[in-house]
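Postdoc handover notes: sequence design on the structure in folder B. Input tokens:
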């Protein structure tokens, strides 16, 4: 195939940048759109160092209809689109619901309206399942009422794409429901850059271990789990990135059963917060200070994926261990402290 041009929106973000690397590794030519609202152009250098290639980059906000239209008119030969660009903080979405609905949904609508490729991969989340009735969670588990505007934008985003696929028979899409993405590329050239105080567990752990935070708050130890702390399915971001390439190839090769499909992306294994802390200590030799505090509002007891569908149909499975994931997050954290341009993200 000559034309291997893939558009990656949000391609300078955490999962986006790792997926760009995975795509380039497989011989795709990547074009990135990002509005730089939660990332840094320095990430392009990281991608270059890992792959030897600097992808074409356009600073575009996907809410700007005219610019999106112009982009697709100029780039009318795309083989596929992977759409990550969206805001992702649960807490912020509760404070700024309109911003979340506008950013996450208008961007998607503009892509669907003007797209110049019939293969779309959409970045969704296991948050659509809420507190599932059955574990591990499979794709046909009921969708629960969203706990936050962020979660709701993922549910509505999936519905918009499904409805679009129903009438556009030539258009094909896959929604990927991620469990908890963690870690960084093994080179430590790219990784997660949380702005301000991190809300997610792993960046908080690495910042505590490096001395930027006094201690980690463990939000509750009275859950009905192995040790009382909540259980999640933590997946290495490079495993997740490779799943995007597998999903894209699935569409390109015409292997889809229907023109809208949904897949869970996780490891299939659940780990509690205390198990993660212990694995981190073992993987890095660092001792972590933590205090058990009250539960965090909105947190669920346990979520881990049934990944049979992705294993079977996409021919993909997560291969990296929890310890490897945590070690890579730690290497990245150490790198960021040294890296002047990234330092401001960790204040
Ligand atoms: C969160 C979001 C989810 C989103 C996902 C993306 C919430 C309620 N949910 O999931 O919608 O899709 O991130 O990555 O925010 N924990 C601590 N101390 C901390 C931070 C976290 O004990 O400082 C615990 C939490 O209680 C949870 C686990 O660590 O049990 C994982 O938390 P987190 O990384 O925030 O992910 P989720 O809550 O699963």
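Designed sequence:
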């Amino acid at each position: 195939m000559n034309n291997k041009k893939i558009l990656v929106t949000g391609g300078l973000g955490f999962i986006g940048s790792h997926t760009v690397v995975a795509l380039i590794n497989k011989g795709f030519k990547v074009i990135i759109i990002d509005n730089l609202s939660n990332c840094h152009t320095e990430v392009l250098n990281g991608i270059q160092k890992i792959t030897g290639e600097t992808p074409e980059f356009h600073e575009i906000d996907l809410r700007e209809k005219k610019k999106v239209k112009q982009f697709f008119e100029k780039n009318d030969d795309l083989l596929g689109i992977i759409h990550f660009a969206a805001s992702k903080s649960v807490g912020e979405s509760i404070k700024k619901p309109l911003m979340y609905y506008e950013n996450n949904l208008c961007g998607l609508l503009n892509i669907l309206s003007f797209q110049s490729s019939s293969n779309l991969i959409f970045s969704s989340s296991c948050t659509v399942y809420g507190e599932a009735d059955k574990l591990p969670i499979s794709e046909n588990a009921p969708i629960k009422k969203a706990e936050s505007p962020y979660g709701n934008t993922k549910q509505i985003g999936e519905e918009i794409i499904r409805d679009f696929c129903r009438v556009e028979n030539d258009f094909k899409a896959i929604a990927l429901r991620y469990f908890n993405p963690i870690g960084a590329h093994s080179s430590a050239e790219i990784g997660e850059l949380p702005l301000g105080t991190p809300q997610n567990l792993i960046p908080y752990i690495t910042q505590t271990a490096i001395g930027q935070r006094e201690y980690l708050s463990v939000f509750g130890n009275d859950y009905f789990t192995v040790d009382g702390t909540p259980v999640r399915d933590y997946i290495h971001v490079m495993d997740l990135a490779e799943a995007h390439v597998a999903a894209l190839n699935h569409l390109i090769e015409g292997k889809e059963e229907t023109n809208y499909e949904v897949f869970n992306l996780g490891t299939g294994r659940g780990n509690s917060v205390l198990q993660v802390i212990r694995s981190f200590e073992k993987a890095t030799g660092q001792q972590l200070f933590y205090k058990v505090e009250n539960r965090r509002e909105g947190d669920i007891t346990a979520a881990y994926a049934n990944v049979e569908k992705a294993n079977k149909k996409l021919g993909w499975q997560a291969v990296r261990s929890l310890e490897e994931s945590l070690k890579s997050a730690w290497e990245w954290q150490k790198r960021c402290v040294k890296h002047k341009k990234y330092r401001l993200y960790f204040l």
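Context for whoever picks this up: The radius of gyration is 19 Å. Don't rerun without checking with the PI first.
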